[in-house]
Structures are given as C-alpha cells and as structure tokens.
C-alpha cells in the first residue's frame, strides 16, 4: 500500500474518532462515506472469530491453525492506520467540540445536520436501481423508528460499573452501524458527560469498564451485521438509509432541551451556511473516494493487461 493511501486511512480514522465523540453523528456513517466500512466490518468479524477459535482450540490442544487463519484475514493495512487516527480524533473532539455544543448548540447542530444529510447519498448509491417496494418500506420503517428514538427525553443514570458496561456494549454498535450515534445513545441515558469527563481526565477505571463493554458489544453484534451484509445486502443498506434519515431529528438546530422541535428561529443565515459547508465537505469526500476507487480499478486493469500482454 502506498504511503499516501496509509496517510489517507489515518485521516479517515481521525474523522471517525471525531464523529464518535459528537452526539448525532455516527462513526459508521463516516466509515461508509470514506469507503472503508465493509473492510472494517469484515475485519471485525475475523477478529471475533480469532478470539472464538483461540478460546475453543488452544485449551483442547488443537493449536493456533484456525485462529491464525482468521487473524491473517484482517485488513491490517486499513485497520492499523484507522486506529492510529481515531485516538487523537476522539481526544481532540472531546476537548474542542463539547464547549462548542454548549456555547453554540444551534450552529453546531446545523453543521452536523449538513454533514449527515449529504452522507445519506452513499448507501442509496450502493443499493442502486431499481428499488423494490419492500426496501422502500424498510427504509420508511427504520426512519420512523430512528425519528422516535432520537426524540426520547434525556435520562439520568448513575454511572455504576454495570450500567457503564451495558451502555458501552450498546453504544459501540453505533461504531459499525451507520446512522446510529454512540454518543447520542450515551446522551439519551445520561452517560455522555461522565464518559467525556473520563476521557478528558484519563479516568482509567471508568475507561477500562467502558472498553470491556465495547468488546462485548462488538462480539455480539458484528457477526450479525456481517451476515446481513453478505446475505441481505440491499435490505440492510435500505434500513441503514432510513436510520440515517430518521436520526437527523437529533441534529435539527432548533429544539428544546427536552428535544421538542421548533420552527427555524434565530441565526438562520449562519446555520444554513454551516449546513451547506457540512454538506459540501461530505460531498467532496465522496467524490474524492470515488475518484480513488476508479483510479485503483484503472491501475488494476492496466496491470492485468500488461501482465497478460507480456505472457
């Protein structure tokens, strides 16, 4: 893999890390927009299999063969640069975006609204044409469900280790499911601020429990999602599209603390301008990614032709 592509994956990881810290934006959406989503899902599935085979085979003396084979299937050339970029992205977002959400909530949500709205074009284009009636129905149902979920009022829950473990297991699903924001789920149950505080203050006890919950959540969820993408790809993408559209409710700039939606009010021009900027950023990312894929496909075709011609 070329150095430029590795750097690109680090930057993609940074964007995913930032997204995971922002309520309303899904890291899975950013992964989908930047073209690394399916390789991430496949790699996560192989890692889960590695652990499963290691736990079952090694104690029985069957060796490392099956686990080692799964480990070699991981797209390390993508996963490692993404992880390198995700950590600083998450830390930077935790420091900078939290005060922006507190001091300029409407403008910040406007920017995020534009980002997420433009990203919905990615799963739609992946489905292609024609859309079947069942897929349209799945999109609508998923959109309504996401709309209702993102309208739930804030809750306040004590950050007991068991609660943190369960919340992390659920929230981490958002890392691999476009349209669902892990930070937003934490915000809904009242654990967003304690988690951000733990990140900023390096509360290793809290973070260790949270990390354990993430591992449990990924182990339970990622294999199901991988199976759905392999066997029901179009329907799964249709549901993802509906979830992304429905979750835009959480990013509507004009809403109360109880998440009641209001008509456009103050700062309309600045909010609309920021939404357009957000949409333009995602559109540029999508165009750049498609050009990269076309260039890679062209290079592969030329390489295949040259190899065949020499022979």
Distance between the termini: 26 Å
As for the number of domains, it is 1
Number of helices: 15
Strand runs, count:
0
Low-confidence runs of at least 5 consecutive residues? none
Spatial extent as radius of gyration: 21 Å
Order of helices and strands: HHHHHHHHHHHHHHH
Shape: globular
**Proportion of strand residues:** under 5%
Which secondary-structure class do the elements indicate? mainly alpha
Helix content: over 70%
Give a quick account of the main beta sheet: strands, pairing sense, barrel closure. none
- Average pLDDT across residues? 80
List the helices and strands and how they pair.
Layout: H1 3-21, H2 27-33, H3 37-57, H4 65-72, H5 76-103, H6 105-119, H7 121-127, H8 133-149, H9 161-171, H10 173-176, H11 182-188, H12 192-200, H13 204-231, H14 233-247, H15 268-310
Note down, in words, how this protein is organized.
The protein is mainly alpha-helical. The protein has one domain (3-310). The chain is 77% helix and 0% strand. The chain is built from 15 helices and no strands. It has helices spanning 3-21, 27-33, 37-57, 65-72, 76-103, 105-119, 121-127, 133-149, 161-171, 173-176, 182-188, 192-200, 204-231, 233-247, 268-310. The two termini are 26 Å apart. The model has no long low-confidence stretch (mean pLDDT 80).
